[in-house]
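hiii, so i know i said id send this last week but things got crazy w the move. better late than never?? heres the sequnce for the chain we talked about at the cafe, plus the structure i predicted for it. fair warning i was half asleep when i ran it
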Amino acid sequence: MVESAEPLCSHPNRRRIQAAMLSLLFMAPLDASAVNILFPVLQREFNLPIERLGDIAWVSVSYLTVIAGLMLPMGRLGDLWGFRRMYLGGGALFVAASVLCALASGLGWLIAARALQGVGACMMMALSPGITTAIFPANERGRAMGIVAMTVALGSIAGPSVGGLVAEAFGWRAVFLMNLPVGAFGLYFCGRTLPALAPTARARPDLPGGALAVVALGALLLAVTEGNAWGWTSMPILGLLALAAGAGLALAAHGRPRRCSTRPCCAGGCSWGRTWRPSPTTPGRCAPPSSSRSSFRRGLASPPRTPG
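okay and structure toks below
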């Protein structure tokens, strides 16, 4: 089912839409930093010996690795399936995974649930720049992007304090359960506020690139985490480092930009590629083809402008 189209330039309720979006996005950095203080508690909860302390780090590493590896593919999926659908789906997945984290009976379960939680967080973090670009005019995007970045920073700063208070008062499982009321409010607010922006691309997401990024980051982080325990010159560590290097080189080769056309796009001679279309917001300038650039990249590529 294709969502109804709305103009991708300026939305009359853009401030309210951004507030709704950030109410849901705030959970991701808050939870990421709040969980870090739970490591001593998790060691006692799961009766881990001293030599397995490095395993606890994967509660956070799995979450962050998934976010880093899937950021760009999720942006492309937003172009394909629509921002509203993907953003609400990411928020719902994040809340559901938070419940699974709170119900974890073992460290492996918790790590797997955290990875699933990272998928939901990635969906929200990848699409927030695209939504911001779609609803704000060019002269307001710089400030709007700054508000998004400030919200992420505030969540990261508040996480340890909030997580410590909640864990001390109600136990470590409550750190994950606190996402339920926040997520329920955010989903309700977003459900009533986010516009149904139409999909803007038909090309498939770069799943091979995302898989290579996850493999490279996962192998590197596993080698760094277990280097002291396994020995830095041991075959498993050397193999992981070689795998990370190989996946990284393959990713670099895979992501090599295609040769752009020399046909000028505007008076300044800039060129974006082989497909051209006029900019909907700035007369005389061209915009990159939506089918070849994800919403995340379009958001980063939009320069801040000031009136006048």
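btw The domain at 14-205+257-261 is CATH 1.20.1250.20 (Growth Hormone; Chain: A;). thought thatd interest u
miss u guys!!
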